[in-house]
Amino acid sequence: MAHQTANRHAPLDLSKWRNVPGILMVVGAVLALIGFFAGHDHREFAYGWLLAFMFFLSLCLGALFLVIAHHLFDAGWSVPIRRFCEHIASLLFPWMALLFLPIWFLKKTIYPWMNLNPHSDHALAAKLPLFTVPSFTIVAVVLFLVWWLLSNRLRYWSLKQDETGAALPTYRMRFYSALGIFLFALSLTMAVIMWMKSLEHQWFSTMYGVYYFAGSVWMTLGTAYIITMILDRQGVISEALHEHQYYFLGSLLFAFTVFYAYIHLSQYFIIWNGNMPEETFWYVVRERGTWWYVGLVIIFGHFFIPFLALLRIDVKNIFTYMVPLCVWTWLMHWFDLSFNIMPVPYPNGFPFAWVWLNLGCWAFMAGFLAWRFLKEYAKYAPYPIKDPRLIEAMGFYHPVPTQISGGELGEADDLRDAPPQFGGGRQ
Prior knowledge:
Elements: H1 20-38, H2 43-72, H3 79-89, H4 95-105, H5 107-110, H6 122-125, H7 133-164, H8 167-195, H9 208-233, H10 243-274, H11 277-285, H12 291-309, H13 319-341, H14 355-377, H15 390-393
């Protein structure tokens, strides 16, 4: 029988935070509208909106990847975090699709290549027919349909598993994950090429999709850690948790810290070593003015600080230590995306004068998506209550393998006397 243990700490007082999504939406909408009419030809608003959109797209895609990876690896420890990841991934359609509409309407303002003649631009001609206005629209429609298919079906069968507890939902989720990992890789790469890399259509990089993927999952893991801690402290998912969840999330965060740095350094080194003008100009622009200092912020803040902070094995279970570090991932990811997008309209340095507009677009999307997430999360069970590996997630030995459950969690401390639930982190 499961050990029932009270949380070590009192629940967090979240009453003052209930109105935060609404406040963010109102304040963000006001700032965004002011920027829309105050800027030159809506240019400043367009790039600020694109920056915020790519930020939250990375969060939704990162959550979708965690769900797919859970089923592909038949994981036990990630069962309690799967449900809120499914809800975050489901924001891709229709909500992220709606937020994409301003980008579509302002596409000729955002993407310089749409105003060029391919007959007089060799780089653009080499990328036909992909880099055309009709293809831009078609690709966007296809991408959102793919993300709807994956996120919708994975959540549908997860909720069906809650109702029946049968083996069929597990088989279906595995099927969509096996298919989905290929669709996910292709769709994420195409999205970041069409919506971010094409800002400078002359540039070539075969690692850009993986680069965006690494940063996206890195930030999503930090977000998942915070959500798990909050739900645990509130007693919402405590019965399904074990200390392993925090350790594994922290370890994956550490792993993707290194992976992101490896990809970014490899891209830079290959371009530097090749020394071809078609590639090097991208980094030359980002060494001008204050962009040089933004690059240093990314080097130290995106890699060295989290890398050194996560080296110790025990810190991954300390609430007061990990939460600021996970919030730090949001800030660094925002700087990273700014480093990719903003040198196009502002080649001479970081746009300090328009930070308020960028933050306004970000705040509106944050409030809107948080509101939709909370609405969906409140409708269903907080975690998969009939998942066959739930017992492993709780740290207990699974004595009899079933059709869809292959054995015990390898990291369980004692097969006969499993440890109690973790209860919200150490101080």
